[in-house]
Amino acid sequence: MSLATLPKIELHLHLEGAAPPAFIRGLAAEKGIDLRDIFTEDGGYAYRDFTHFLSVYEAATSVLTGPDDFARLTTAVLAESAAHGVIYTEAFLSPDFCGGGDLGAWREYLAAIREAADRAEASDGIVMRGIVTPIRHFGPERAKPIALCAAETAGEFITGFGIGGDEMAGKLKDFAWSFDMAREAGLRITAHAGEWGGAGSVWDAINDLGVERVGHGVQAIEDPALVDHLAETGVVLECCPGSNVVLGVFPSWESHPIEKLRTRGVRVTVSTDDPPFFRTTMSYEYGRLADTFGWDEEIFAQLTRTALEAAFCDEATRETLA
Ligand code: ADE
Ligand code: ZN
Prior knowledge:
Distance between the termini: 19 Å
Strand content: 5-15%
Shape: globular
Number of strands: 8
Radius of gyration: 18 Å
CATH class: Alpha Beta
CATH topology: TIM Barrel
Number of helices: 13
Oligomer: single chain
Bound molecules: adenine, zinc ion
Helix content: 40-55%
């Protein structure tokens, strides 16, 4: 079994977080922006911990100043994903970084991203869909215009609404207005929870926002009742083990709970989150899962079936991927 060429479905990828460092450095040089502090000597991203990661992420994103930059970013990211066997990817898109929540500006950014995605689908066969994502530490008031952007552009390409950023900032239920607006527009719902905030945070995402998927969610392992609930209801976890290990959520691949969750009947999937930040790719994740937990062809096939079922695309698209 060649893990690199196995067709893969990725449900949790931040578009800006997938920006190759050389791409960001190139844009910074073009625009005369000094970003030396955010790179390591060998050309990776440099950060100390999760909070610092979020600020380095925002600094890198600051060089993306117009729709054309996002089109180029989308092209670079999808080429890299396709090279690792990804046939379908759901990318978190943040209007906060694409016009600051202004609807007219967002439409222009989105058109540029979508054109680049259509070109990648034609050339590499990779299908992309977007999940509009406010940023939790920017607060619930700033999430409202983002939800409006999401609702106004919901459709074949924008299929979901989520929330990322600092999980310890504020309460999820303060974002319920935004999530209700997105849901009423027909968008499917996910939220980052249980990466840092413990099992209680996963319960909040389920009870306060009505999520059908959880971004990370892996700290659910602390609460057996929650693990049972996830298994019974079929809520899907977007697990990103490489991200968790590099950021220190778990000290090692061996201690990552994805295998325990899977064998207890939770519907797990695998994604990279922000691949260059964590020096990972989808093939690397698959390789580590095979080496660490002995995952074989049958388990990877089940993983792909779960991810395809949980994808937020329409049925016609799902059928083309099956
Ligand atoms: N934004 C980008 N990566 C993230 C992560 N791992 N957790 C929360 N927000 C994020
Ligand atoms: Zn994430």
